């Protein structure tokens, strides 16, 4: 009796055939000043490496040449509009002096850069075709599940029109590539040259843009990452319309909600984004959102952890009024805010940071008046492993603390204490304890004593550094 053979996965030949014409190879060239005067390696005639070295040193001009070197690179892309708009990665075309798009039928067209977004590593190109191009549609990456089949088409190692198949291995991956990391992970083979190419679902819709791989060898080991279309589609629309991105901006500084912070705030679980500061002149500088608030939902989208908030805010249109669900003083409340523009906000924050940064040339030895040394701030008994004192003018000058900071100065931190473990250093300022402002050392002692009487295990502190940057930390109460 013949042994039954197990059927393999269903063929994707029909699917691939209808998509290959929309995927393109992108070649770029960049003129680089030739700083290295090393001679071209002498390769024996007929050597299998001769073509490689000839191509690599193309334009070098040989030993002693003062000419610049032409560096070529290859990547992938795909047509998103028959009129000639092509999506790819920013790193594929970054710094290029010349961009050429190679189509599956062998034709080539020069491309113009429409716009780029380094934060998501995306770029949009435009070619001028004589006839409408074959384009592929975007699909909804949000409905894709771990284990769903996907297909990648690209230009690995310059081998155009290569098709690979795999599954979605994970979603929502953060690989520290940018502020809005939310990658789809796939085991479909992705190699160098695949960057900028599409990741398709089994309907032939683009659900990701292949962007990065983890590989010690440079080749695929089955761990590739794609920017999901839920993020990319809006970016391409903005680049096409404006030539740049126009992201929403809330104007807050945030930090994670740890288990200790959640306990101190009376939360049943650690979730959301903790507001540690409000940007002066920003969209919520009117008091609608306050420091100490925890954002748990934004415009109907849950904020499970801190990194979710910047992404959902950035995806929201500038000027849109949105509902924000907050946790404030242990109670949930909904406020409405109107978003500003992130690109304008970044300039504003940079200016604010520059203004708040102390003069780098100033040292503790310089901080004297009339040739007299400043008196050291008065030391007090240790509280939570910290010496504290009132923030008077002497303390400001000793620790170079800006005038905008209000609270109680930390004059010393005992080693091997909870405060030291949390990174607190002399010159930091306690602004709040348990979300209540403190102005004197006696108020700090009283607040800590009250927390002890309530059998609290941690004290929630708002700490300002000497430049005024705020952060929340919890310090264990012994």
What do these coordinates show?
By secondary structure, the chain is of the alpha+beta class. It has 4 domains: 15-37 and 48-126, Thrombin, subunit H; 141-233, Thrombin, subunit H (Beta Barrel), CATH 2.40.10.10; 248-356, Roll (Pdz3 Domain); 382-476, Roll (Pdz3 Domain), CATH 2.30.42. Helix content is 17%, strand content 33%. It has helices at residues 13-17, 50-56, 90-93, 229-242, 259-264, 308-314, 342-356, 393-399, 418-421, 441-453; strands at 23-32, 69-81, 85-89, 98-102, 108-110, 112-117, 122-126, 149-154, 162-173, 183-186, 198-200, 206-213, 224-228, 248-249, 252-256, 273-278, 294-298, 301-302, 321-328, 331-338, 340-341, 382-383, 386-390, 408-413, 429-433, 436-437, 458-464, 470-476. The strands form 5 sheets. It has a 7-stranded antiparallel beta sheet. Residues 59-65 and 356-379 have low confidence and may be disordered.
Key features of this structure:
single chain, about 475 residues, alpha+beta, Thrombin, subunit H, Pdz3 Domain, 4 domains, seven-stranded antiparallel sheet, about 15% helix, elongated, EC 3.4.21.107, stress response, serine protease
* Count of discrete domains: 4
For this structure, what is the CATH homologous superfamily of the largest domain?
PDZ domain
Could you report the average pLDDT, rounded to the nearest whole number? 83
Strand content: 25-35%
């Amino acid at each position: 009796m013949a042994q039954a053979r197990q059927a393999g996965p269903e063929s994707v030949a029909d699917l691939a055939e209808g998509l290959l014409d929309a995927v393109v190879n992108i070649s770029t060239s960049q003129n680089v000043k030739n700083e290295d005067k090393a001679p071209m390696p002498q390769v024996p005639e007929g050597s299998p490496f001769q073509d490689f070295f000839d191509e690599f040193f193309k334009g070098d001009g040989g030993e002693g040449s003062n000419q610049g070197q032409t560096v070529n690179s290859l990547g992938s892309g795909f047509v998103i509009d028959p009129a000639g708009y092509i999506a790819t990665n920013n790193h594929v075309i970054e710094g290029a002096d010349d961009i050429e798009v190679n189509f599956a039928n062998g034709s080539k067209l020069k491309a113009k850069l429409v716009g780029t977004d380094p934060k998501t590593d995306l770029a949009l190109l435009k070619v001028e075709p004589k006839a409408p191009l074959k384009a592929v549609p975007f699909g909804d990456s949000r409905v894709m599940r771990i284990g769903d089949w996907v297909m990648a088409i690209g230009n690995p190692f310059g081998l155009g029109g290569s098709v690979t198949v795999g599954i979605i291995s994970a979603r929502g991956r953060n690989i520290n590539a940018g502020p809005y990391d939310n990658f789809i992970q796939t085991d479909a083979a992705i190699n160098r040259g695949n960057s900028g190419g599409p990741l398709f679902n089994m309907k032939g819709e683009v659900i990701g843009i292949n962007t990065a791989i983890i590989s010690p060898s440079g080749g695929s080991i089955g761990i590739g990452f794609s920017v999901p279309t839920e993020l990319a589609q809006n970016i391409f629309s903005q680049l096409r319309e404006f030539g740049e991105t126009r992201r929403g901006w809330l104007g807050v500084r945030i930090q994670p909600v740890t288990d200790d912070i959640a306990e101190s705030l009376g939360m049943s679980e650690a979730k959301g984004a903790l507001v540690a500061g409000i940007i002066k002149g920003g969209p919520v500088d009117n008091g609608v959102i306050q420091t100490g608030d925890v954002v748990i939902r934004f415009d109907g989208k849950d904020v499970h952890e801190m990194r979710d908030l910047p992404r959902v805010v950035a995806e929201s249109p500038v000027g849109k009024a949105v509902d924000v669900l907050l946790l404030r003083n242990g109670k949930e409340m909904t406020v409405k805010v109107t978003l500003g523009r992130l690109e304008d906000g970044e300039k504003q924050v940079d200016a604010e940071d520059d203004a708040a940064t102390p003069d780098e040339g100033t040292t503790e030895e310089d901080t004297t008046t009339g040739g007299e040394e400043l008196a050291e701030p008065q030391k007090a008994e240790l509280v939570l492993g910290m010496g504290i004192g009132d923030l008077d003018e002497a303390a400001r000058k000793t620790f170079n603390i800006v005038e905008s900071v209000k609270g109680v100065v930390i004059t010393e931190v005992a080693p091997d204490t909870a405060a030291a473990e949390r990174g607190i250093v002399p010159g930091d300022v306690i602004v709040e304890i348990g979300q209540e402002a403190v102005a004197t050392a006696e108020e700090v002692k009283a607040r800590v004593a009250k927390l002890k009487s309530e059998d609290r295990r941690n004290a929630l502190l708002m700490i300002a550094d000497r430049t005024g940057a705020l952060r929340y930390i919890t310090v264990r109460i012994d």
